[in-house]
């Protein structure tokens, strides 16, 4: 196990370095700079001074080396747009907000999705199954921004049950978390249902029944543990996606999370924020995948970690 | 003492193309401590009849019976839930394929402990001790470490031993073995059969042995039930079935056993294929393949006729005035 994790961490680090390199050069290949402010423009002399100050006048490979050595010291640099802001602080402030909403959404998706999937599989062909699966198909197809706007309009606009923006009370969390969970619930429900249907046909389920195991435990112990494996695989991507913040949801509900900065920084060519957020997301995704793979090995003993 | 008594058991599968009448009214009884073999080819209803008994069929199966009595209890009125209390406790089941019959995600030990925890309501430690005893009984070497292993770490024969240990865990009065050796190597087959036979002797449990191998029957059983097309065509003691068989299907089965001694002779196959059970023939299910079939065989189901107290068969050839066709032994 230890050896496996060590190998995965090394390969994860290599992935991150490649990610940083690609991102760095791609970003600089895009025309414009943090200080080109469109039509009004900055006087060329000022621009010159700014570029010199922040090292943007250096050849690209030198900038790259400088950037890499800064990262090794744990410094993601400053925001070019607002030079009093450190990127480290920005991530440190934005991530907890995104992560809180994201983690809630992951838990909600998992609980509701798996439950729906099991009930649909057990009551296959029933009205419940029909309604759940049609809803799930819609949930998978309809884009997040449509659902978000619809829910926002309905529950905050028309019915006025829930607040529209901010995160001050628990009621503020309901809408964004619902929006974020909508399509994962649908996806998990469909996945759980089909995998459950397959598992319930297996011989070992019959064995469990023949032993006298009650139907509840046949489904929830012998069935679910086998049926949950594909969901666990999907969980890595899901956690990484949801915890790092959704641009759409954070914009719509004015949530000061990570997703909002990401897109803002790209339009502003705020190099350091783009890089900082990307690196953070990269590390996070790699870590999530590693955790999920280890979890998979714990759930399924047939997966050999050391080979 | 009668342990199990079944009258007119019928199992029908409702599928989209129609209703498959897999079991069409079978009567069966098993005495305490007796070993009964059910023999027949694939699809004759031998497994389905036993799975019906334990409510182990999918929900599109319809099971009816005039009488199912187990040790004095009427099982016809029992639903699946009530049946769960009996199966695993009083009735142990051994399945065909040990490779897929154990849950791959749980240790062997935890799967073996389950029936004890459910039926005997005893603690983990006490249960583990019983599990170890049973594992020794089925001759599994080093049972302590086996318990911590997962099914995929064990060989097929070892897994079938585990399945047998599981079936006898609560000291059942009846073991139903559904082709327990079909999925195993020939050498392992013999070991497993010996094991079941010796356990049967040691524990005095009644056994229903489902198989398509008459050799297995000859080695282990006292009585044999021959099934074909969802009905019982002949039943009797092993001696009666092997030496005075009365049904042409039984003759066919006996002639298709490979003989180890004597001159080299080709096996005699039974030509044709089993009847379509969605629209079963009104007469004898074997009529289409029977070399001695008469007109009546195609139009009406022959009744079970007694030959002796223990022996009966379902064939018109046994009628007075029927053509004189006699069993002339395997080599005829």
- What is the number of helices of chain B? 11
CATH superfamily of the domain at 87-299 in chain A: MetI-like
- Class of the largest domain in chain B in CATH? Alpha Beta
Average pLDDT across residues of chain B? 89
Report, as a whole number of angstroms, the end-to-end distance of chain A.
Answer: 10 Å
Order of helices and strands of chain B: EEEHEEEHEHHHHEHEHEEHHHEE
The second-level CATH architecture of the domain at 87-299 in chain A is Orthogonal Bundle
Give the CATH level 1 class of the domain at 87-299 in chain A: Mainly Alpha
Through-space gap between termini of chain B: 39 Å
Overview of this protein structure:
The complex is a heterodimer of chains A (307) and B (332). Chain A has helices at residues 2-29, 44-53, 60-72, 87-122, 127-141, 144-158, 170-199, 203-211, 215-227, 229-243, 247-252, 258-267, 271-299. Chain A is mainly alpha-helical and 307 residues long. The model of chain A has no long low-confidence stretch (mean pLDDT 85). In chain A, helix 4 (87-122) packs antiparallel against helix 10, helix 4 runs parallel beside helix 13 and helix 7 runs antiparallel to helix 10 (229-243). The mean pLDDT of chain B is 89. In chain B, a hairpin with a 2-residue loop joins strand 1 and strand 2 (18-31). With 332 residues, chain B is α/β, with parallel strands linked by helices. In chain B, helix 3 (108-120) crosses helix 4 (124-137), helix 3 packs parallel to helix 6 (156-167) and helix 4 (124-137) crosses helix 6. Chain B contains eleven helices and 13 strands. Chain B folds into two domains: 2-221, P-loop containing nucleotide triphosphate hydrolases (Rossmann fold, 3-Layer(aba) Sandwich), CATH 3.40.50; 241-318, no CATH class.
């Amino acid at each position: 196990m230890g050896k496996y994790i060590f190998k995965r961490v090394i390969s994860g680090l290599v992935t991150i370095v490649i990610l940083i390199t690609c991102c760095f050069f791609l970003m600089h290949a895009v025309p414009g700079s943090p200080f080109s402010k469109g039509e009004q423009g900055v006087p060329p002399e000022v621009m010159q001074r700014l570029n010199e100050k922040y090292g943007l006048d250096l050849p690209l490979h030198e900038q790259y080396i400088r950037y890499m050595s800064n990262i090794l010291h744990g410094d993601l640099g400053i925001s070019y747009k607002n030079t009093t802001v450190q990127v480290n602080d920005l991530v440190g402030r934005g991530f907890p907000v995104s992560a809180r909403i994201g983690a809630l959404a992951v838990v909600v998706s998992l609980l509701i999705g798996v439950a729906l999937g099991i009930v649909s599989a057990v009551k296959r062909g029933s009205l419940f199954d029909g309604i759940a699966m049609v809803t799930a198909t819609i949930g998978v197809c309809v884009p997040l921004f449509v659902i978000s706007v619809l829910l926002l309009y309905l529950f905050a606009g028309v019915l006025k049950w829930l607040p529209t923006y901010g995160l001050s009370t628990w009621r503020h969390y309901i809408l964004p978390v619902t929006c974020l969970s909508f399509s994962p619930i649908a996806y998990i429900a469909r996945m759980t249902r089909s995998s459950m249907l397959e598992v319930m046909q297996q011989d070992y389920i019959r064995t469990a029944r023949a032993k006298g195991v009650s139907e509840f435990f046949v489904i929830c112990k012998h069935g679910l543990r086998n049926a949950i494996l594909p969901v666990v695989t999907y969980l890595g991507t899901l956690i990484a996606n949801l915890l790092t913040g959704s641009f759409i949801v954070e914009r719509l509900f004015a949530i000061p999370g990570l997703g909002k900065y990401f897109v803002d920084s790209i339009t502003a060519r705020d190099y350091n924020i783009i890089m900082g957020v990307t690196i953070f997301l990269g590390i996070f995704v790699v870590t999530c995948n590693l955790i999920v793979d280890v979890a998979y090995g714990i759930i399924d003993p047939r997966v050999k970690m050391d080979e | 003492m009668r342990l199990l008594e079944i009258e007119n058991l019928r199992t029908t599968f409702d599928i989209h193309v129609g209703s498959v009448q897999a079991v069409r009214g079978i009567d069966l009884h098993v005495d305490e401590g007796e070993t009964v073999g059910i023999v027949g080819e694939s699809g004759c209803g031998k497994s389905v009849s036993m799975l019906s008994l334990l409510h182990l069929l999918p929900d599109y199966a319809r099971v009816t019976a005039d009488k199912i009595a187990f040790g004095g209890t009427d099982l016809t009125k029992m639903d699946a839930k009530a049946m769960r209390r009996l199966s695993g406790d009083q009735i142990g089941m051994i399945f065909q394929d040990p490779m897929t019959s154990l849950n791959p995600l749980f240790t062997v030990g935890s799967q073996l402990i389950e029936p004890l925890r459910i039926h005997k309501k005893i603690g983990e430690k006490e249960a583990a001790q019983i599990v170890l005893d049973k594992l020794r009984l089925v001759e599994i070497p080093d049972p302590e470490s086996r318990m911590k292993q997962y099914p995929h770490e064990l060989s097929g024969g070892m897994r079938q031993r585990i399945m047998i240990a599981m079936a006898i865990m609560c000291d059942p009065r009846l073991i139903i073995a559904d082709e327990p050796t079909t999925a195993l190597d020939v050498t392992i087959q013999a070991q497993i059969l010996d094991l079941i036979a010796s356990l049967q002797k040691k524990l005095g449990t009644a056994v229903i042995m489902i198989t398509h191998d008459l050799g297995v029957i000859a080695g282990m059983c006292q009585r044999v039930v021959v099934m074909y097309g969802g009905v019982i065509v002949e039943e009797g003691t092993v001696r009666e079935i092997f030496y005075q068989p009365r049904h042409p299907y039984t003759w066919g089965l006996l002639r298709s056993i490979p003989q180890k001694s004597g001159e080299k002779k080709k096996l005699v196959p039974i030509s044709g294929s089993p009847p379509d059970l969605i629209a079963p023939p009104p007469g004898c299910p074997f009529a289409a393949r029977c070399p001695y079939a008469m007109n009546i065989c195609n139009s009406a189901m022959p009744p079970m006729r007694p030959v002796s107290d223990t022996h009966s068969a379902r064939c018109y050839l046994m009628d007075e005035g029927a053509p004189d066709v006699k069993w002339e032994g395997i080599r005829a």
